[in-house]
């Protein structure tokens, strides 16, 4: 997952905003309040993030890269485990999870709805290089979709699942996606 | 367009018109009030926050623009979802509103979506003896792969059109239904 370089000031702004979102229970927090929490001038916030959408995109990316960071998977077949952990992390910070989920669905450039895509592609290509283009795309799309906060939001909201059930169902679905390719790994070269 | 019957609906109809030229974030209550010909205060009374407006707008769009074709069997379900994805492609600005509204923290006591109930009913008929946990895991996966979020992610993150998105959806449905025990497997075939 790529994290854009942040200045110390930017990091202070994003951390202050994330903190306030959790306290207030909404992303509707004024620049003035964010600036006061970060201990800087309001115009500094505006200079770094001219619009609210800029601020939300940066905050969501920062939250994904820090608070919701995944342990790195070294195999595509470990992804269900990473998904299980991620769901538990989302469940512990529900307000932030909703902000990240909504931001990914804005349909604007920079919203990065599949930040983990490149990593999944690298793993899949290394282990199961024999897939045709449509199969490969379908596996990556399904796993990207499951490995996202949208899963947590949907399973919770539509089925009233709790943390344990969400983590279980999301990992189960990812295992299902992998079933087709489980036995198609390219043999290890003999060294 | 249908005749708006009340103020709340008139506001949503006008918001939908404005969505054709700008993003939801760029529709101010001021502009919306001018478009409807009412005061800004009236809009606030109906929709105290933008999250309320987004949720109401999404469900209105869903009903008027993306009605879910009824389905009982899995093949009807697949066809219904394909039709929706194609409708989303034809009206992307509206479909993004749906994807986004389904991601926000619920503003009211949200009922499960119509499609959630329809998927559960489909499974009840098709696999009546399936245990509750597996039934719910299957229902949740099917719902999530048929969602506006799936469409939006594949369109924005993968640059796919409705045809490719339908293909990815079908393959995902196949993998989920392949988890069913063999007694239920017959109805799962496309």
TrEMBL record, chain A:
Keywords: DNA-binding. Transmembrane segments: none annotated. Residues 7-67 form the HTH tetR-type domain. This is TetR/AcrR family transcriptional regulator. Residues 30-49 bind DNA. It comes from the Bacteria.
From TrEMBL, chain B:
Keywords: DNA-binding. Residues 28-47 bind DNA. The keyword Nucleus does not apply. Pfam families: TetR_N. It comes from Paractinoplanes pyxinae. Gene3D superfamilies: Tetracycline Repressor, domain 2. This is Helix-turn-helix domain containing protein. The lineage of its organism: Bacteria, Bacillati, Actinomycetota, Actinomycetes, Micromonosporales. It comes from the Bacteria. Residues 5-65 form the HTH tetR-type domain.
């Amino acid at each position: 997952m790529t994290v854009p370089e942040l200045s110390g000031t930017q990091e202070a702004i994003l951390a202050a905003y994330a903190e306030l979102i959790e306290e207030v229970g909404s992303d509707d927090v004024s620049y003035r309040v964010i600036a006061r929490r970060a201990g800087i001038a309001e115009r500094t916030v505006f200079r770094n993030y001219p619009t609210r959408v800029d601020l939300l995109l940066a905050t969501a990316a920062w939250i994904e890269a820090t608070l919701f960071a995944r342990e790195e998977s070294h195999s595509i077949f470990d992804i269900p485990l990473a998904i299980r952990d991620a769901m538990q992390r989302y469940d512990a910070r529900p307000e932030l999870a909703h902000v990240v989920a909504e931001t990914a669905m804005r349909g604007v450039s920079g919203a990065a709805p599949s930040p983990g895509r490149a990593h999944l592609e690298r793993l899949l290509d290394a282990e199961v290089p024999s897939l045709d283009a449509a199969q490969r795309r379908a596996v990556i799309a399904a796993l990207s979709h499951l490995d996202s906060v949208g899963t947590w939001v949907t399973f919770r909201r539509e089925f009233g699942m709790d943390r344990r059930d969400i983590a279980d169902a999301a990992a189960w679905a990812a295992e299902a996606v992998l079933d087709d390719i489980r036995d198609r790994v390219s043999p290890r070269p003999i060294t | 367009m249908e005749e708006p019957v009340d103020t709340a609906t008139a506001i949503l109809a006008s918001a939908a018109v404005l969505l054709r030229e700008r993003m939801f974030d760029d529709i101010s209550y001021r502009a919306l009030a001018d478009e409807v010909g009412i005061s800004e205060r009236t809009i606030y009374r109906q929709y105290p926050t933008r999250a309320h407006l987004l949720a109401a707008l999404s469900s209105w769009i869903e009903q008027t623009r993306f009605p879910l074709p009824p389905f009982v069997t899995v093949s009807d379900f697949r066809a219904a979802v394909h039709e929706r994805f194609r409708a989303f492609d034809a009206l992307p600005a509206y479909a993004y509103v749906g994807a986004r509204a389904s991601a926000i923290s619920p503003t009211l006591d949200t009922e499960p979506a119509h499609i959630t109930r329809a998927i559960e009913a489909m499974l009840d008929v098709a696999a009546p003896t399936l245990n509750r946990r597996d039934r719910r895991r299957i229902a949740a996966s099917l719902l999530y792969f048929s969602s506006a979020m799936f469409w939006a992610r594949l369109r924005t993150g993968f640059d796919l059109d409705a045809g490719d998105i339908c293909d990815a959806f079908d393959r995902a449905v196949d993998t989920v239904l392949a988890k069913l025990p063999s007694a239920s497997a017959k109805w799962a075939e496309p």
